[in-house]
Amino acid sequence: MSVSIIAAAALLISAFITDIRRMIIPNKLTAFFFAAGLIYHLVASGWGGGGSALLGAAAGAIPLLLLYAAKGIGAGDVKLFGALGAWVGPSAALYVLMYSILYAGAIGLVMLFISRPFTRRVFTGAVSLFVPGMGLSQAGWLSWAKEGKKFPFMLAVVPGALSAWWTML
């Protein structure tokens, strides 16, 4: 397994934990991983590697600026994809982005479905079985679905990254 994949996995795991617990991805986390990815690729591959890291960061962040402008995601998600792109390059960043958006759409559909009264009761029971200890009570998860609130995008990014890397192998 390459250094880039290990670093990207560390970034995603760290971002997942903070996003699930506090609905925020810290600037320090994304800035550190962006700088580390840029420096790593500069040292490992020279100016070409640095250019590829910058192109990857742009490929990850620029498409998400539209979603951010529409208030569909937070700024931390944009910066996260910039940092991720610095490590994995432009094509992998775009694959992760594509799969993440597909998973986010599926999560949104599930949230619409469970906002109905009967399915809300079923969902509450299921959450109590499968989600304890994730840092959110079942009431917190249910309120997102019921009130149409945003959910942590990392719930879609992690399976999106796994799907992208699985298809790219």
Automatic annotation (TrEMBL):
Stored InterPro entries: Prepilin_IV_endopep_pep (IPR000045), Prepilin_peptidase/N-MTase (IPR050882)
Entry similarity comment: Belongs to the peptidase A24 family.
Residue stretches in coiled coil: none
UniProt keywords, alphabetically: Membrane, Transmembrane, Transmembrane helix
Chain ranges of the Prepilin type IV endopeptidase peptidase domain: 7-109
Transmembrane annotation, as ranges: 54-73, 126-145, 151-168
Record has Membrane as a keyword: yes
UniProt keyword Transmembrane present: yes
Name listed for the protein in its UniProt record: Prepilin peptidase
